[in-house]
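Lab notebook, bench 4. Still working through the backlog of constructs that have no structural model yet. Next entry is a single chain of 138 residues. Request: give me the structure tokens for it.
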Amino acid sequence: MLMVLLCVGAWTSAVTPTNSTLAKFEQWMARHGRIYKDNLEKAKRYGIFLETLRFIEDFNSKAANHSYKVGLNQFSDLTTEEFVPRYTGFRATSRSSNSSAATTFKYSMTQVPDSLNWVEKGVVGSIKNQGGCASKTI
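Model written out:
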């Protein structure tokens, strides 16, 4: 009887994170208006979402090493391979024969600060979703 209780307890603790992450995924879908064409697509996106969630939890658990934390956003169900061409305008091209030639950096700075806070200098603002702003180079 004790063995059965231990097995049930282990199974329950193993299932609970899945249920809570599934609930988190469902809440995330509702918040960002995600509707998938079928259960296969939903399962694929849930897998990507879980990978993103694991990355976030791992990164934030080491927050002492960073000056910021990361979190879920409207892109949390996309892979990098999907995100980059869709939202950055980056198109991978083959290198030309001249592109491997080394170029020299024309500035010499002997005193470089250890850090630079562009927010304090008023150069950058808060993070915003610019959507498809069409600032792609063609």
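Notes after review: The first helix runs from residue 2 to 32. Residues 1-17 have pLDDT under 50 and may be disordered. Flag for follow-up if needed.
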